Amino acid sequence: MNIKELRKKAMALPLLPGVYIMRDRSHNIIYIGKAKALKNRVSQYFGSQNNHQEKVRRMVSNVYDFDYIITDSEFEALILECSLIKQNTPKYNILLKDDKGYSYIKVSSDKWRRISYALQQDDPKATYIGPYKSSYYVKNAIDEAIKIFQLPTCNKKFPEDFRKTRPCLNYHIKQCCAPCRGKMSLAEYNEHIDSALEFLKGGTTESIAKMTEEMNKASENLDFELAAKIRDRIASVKKMNDKQKVVDIKVDEQDVIAYITDGDKGTFEVFRFKDGRLFDREHFMVDNGENEEELMAEFITRYYTIRDDVPKQLTLDREIEDSKLLTKWLSEKKGLAVHIVVPKIGDQKHLVDMCKKNAIERLAQTKGSTTGEYGVLEELKEVLGLDKIPEYIESYDNSNLSGSENVCGMVVYENGKKNKKAYKKFKIKGFEGQDDYASMAEVIDRRLDEYEKAEEPVGFGRKPDLILLDGGKGQVNAVLPILKKHNIDIPTFGMVKDDSHRTRAIVSDKGEIAISRKRKLFTFISKMQDEVHRFAIGYQRQRRSMNTFKSSLTDIPGVGTERAKALLKHFRTIKNISEADYEELLNAPKMNKVSADSVYNYFHNENNSN
Fold first, then answer.
1. Where does the record place the GIY-YIG domain (predicted)?
2. What average pLDDT score do residues 24-50 get?
3. In the prediction, which pLDDT does 445 show?
4. Which residues contact 300 (CB under 8 A, 6 or more apart)?
5. What are the residues facing 65 on neighbouring strands?
6. Average pLDDT, the chain
7. Do strands 313-316 and 339-341 pair parallel, antiparallel, or not at all (unpaired)?
8. What residues contact residue 114 under an 8 Å CB cut-off, 6+ apart?
9. d(Cα 255, Cα 257) in Å, to the nearest integer?
């Protein structure tokens, strides 16, 4: 069926809750969704494709037919949707691969034992503790145990490597007991290993209780040196435990979920807490959807379909669609009441921000950027109300000298960094004199002409996510009709300076947006405004200098504007022209014997007179 036939079929659907199943030409299921009213939801897919994101357009283009199942309630539709997606794994649904596997704590079979992290029990002689579902927990627990009980992490073999080299830095900062010195007995070393294993098996509370008992016993036996060592270990365990308690969380168990997108791809970050400690974390890359609230709801259903342990509280960075429906589903799955919260202030908001920062880091890594660079783009997106993170930003500034040498510079920031290869220079051609608004309009018009001509999405063939103009509301208003003329939608704002020529705010056609209180964003915009100003004024000075040189060359008989321009382009400077021999001048572009004689004699006679 074509899209018109599909829309006709969708418009005949009932206004009842249910599940719809999209199929391709081979009748394979490619998408499954639920709806409160089937007719309203399904018909949206087959309306104007301009309103859909790329992922949805791709899906719709592959739909040949669809089925539907009516349910008694929207909740039943949710249950059925989850079941069908799990059975069929449709291509265009969010599909989260449950590839965590199990992790183990490995204790080697050597005489001088070592503790390490393992994914498989591949050494029959070793001892394994586990399995554990969270690799994050196992890795962190082993790192903690090694630091607290001062276990070696080097590749040295004992006793073969005793006294062969000096102890490493870890010994000097009290993070290794340094058996390599040959001053520690095997029995003493085993005490460290056994204490670490007790800590790993029993956890913080049990470990502290056991060590406290051992410390008191050593003290009663007047073994004050051993008591002091155990006391220091207890202090280290408590200190490590305090570091793990990120904030004073009042909830016994909770998951925190945040989502960041660049418009095409997105990252879900999940932090899992128990007893105030972060015990697991996961991240998932997905294609971005049209509605981020709906996407978050879909992610939650997929995530807790592959994870059996539902927390008492789900803490999110945004409101979601069908919150009551999901709360009911999660509560039934857990067998206890589950709460979904979106905090605005306090410790819970701090947790959400921390989770979101890590999501930004994940997404930044895929773009080759740092967290700071990508974080400021996320902040810019929120402040300007953009639909996506502005990965590709073009900034423009005009420059002239009393109406002459009228030019414009364009600088590009990609993923928060300068992309100097994409910088462009424009000479204003449409008029003489000084008109900042007309100059900006001409440049944007020419730039969009080049975009429409381009066959590849590189250089001028790439549409910017954001345009920032050096100037205020007037410059923005001059450019908006140009965008409308080309029927191209690009968010466009101005960068306003104060009387001291420092960045003050961002301005749209509707008014100013203050950025002074957002330090990172303020610094980013200020640097961009300084960079585009530097680039534009540098180009204007370059042209002025070239014209000054050309005017001095045109004083030479037989040298006109075109010949002077060709000479400067070939020799680069007046000094190089003056020092050139006759043959070099004769072989230069646009030169002949008469003009070469004239130029050579001009500079030769001048040099002789000096």
1. 15-94
2. 90
3. 95
4. 257, 314, 320, 326, 330
5. 23
6. 85
7. parallel
8. 107, 108, 151, 152
9. 7
Least confident of 195-199, 224-228, 319-323, 389-393: 224-228
Q: Are the beta carbons of 150 and 192 closer than 8 angstroms? A: yes
Q: Return the structure tokens found at 494.
A: 């101005």
Distance CA 579, CA 585 (A): 10
- Residue 520's pLDDT is 85
- Inter-helix orientation angle 371-384/519-553, to 10°: 100
Smallest Cα–Cα separation from 323: which of 336, 339, 311?
339
Check if the beta carbon of residue 375 is closer than 8 Å to that of residue 393.
no
Q: What percent of the chain has pLDDT over 90?
A: 35
Distance CA 149, CA 199 (A): 10
* The pLDDT of residue 607: 44
DSSP letters for 351-364: HHHHHHHHHHHHHH
CA atoms of 463 and 465, how far apart (whole Å): 7
User: pLDDT tens across 216-235, in order?
Assistant: 887 888 878 778 877 877 77
Between CA 531 and CA 395 the distance in angstroms is 9
**pLDDT 10s digits, 254-302:** 999 999 988 778 899 999 888 777 778 888 888 877 688 888 999 999 9
* Amino acid 549: pLDDT: 54
Query: Is the CB of residue 515 less than 8 Å from the CB of residue 521?
Result: yes
Q: What is the pLDDT of residues 356-386, one digit of tens each?
A: 988 888 888 887 777 778 888 988 998 998 9
Contact between 117 and 140 (Cβ < 8 Å): no
> What is the per-residue pLDDT for 206?
65
CA dist., res. 577 & res. 572, Å (int): 8
User: What is each CA distance from 208 to 199, 204, 232, 365, 593, in whole angstroms?
Assistant: 8, 6, 11, 39, 97
Euclidean distance between CA atoms 142 and 138, whole angstroms: 6
Q: Long-range contacts: 597-606, Cβ < 8 Å, 24+?
A: 598/556, 598/557, 598/558, 598/559, 599/556, 599/558, 599/559, 599/567, 602/556, 602/557, 603/577, 603/578, 606/578
Which residues are CB-neighbours of 428 under 8 A, at least 6 positions away? 398, 400, 406, 407, 408, 439, 442, 443
| β-pair type (18-23, 313-316) | unpaired
264 three-state secondary structure? coil
Q: Report how far residue 380's alpha carbon sits from residue 386's, in angstroms, rounded to the nearest whole number.
A: 8
pLDDT for residue 609 is more than 50: no
**Tens digit of pLDDT for each residue in 303-350?**
998 888 899 999 999 999 889 999 999 999 999 999 999 999 888 898
Torsion of CA 189, 191, 192, 194, to 10 degrees: 120
Q: Residue 392 has which token pair? A: 């590709």
Helices (H), 89-223: 135-148, 169-172, 186-220
Spell out the SS3 assignment of 363-377.
HHHHHCCCHHHHHHH
Residue 107 belongs to what H/E stretch? strand 103-107
Q: Is the pLDDT of residue 174 over 60?
A: yes
Greater pLDDT, 50 or 46: 46
Structure tokens at 379: 């902040």
The token pair that represents 371 in the structure block: 């967290």
**Which residue carries 């300076």 as its tokens?**
497
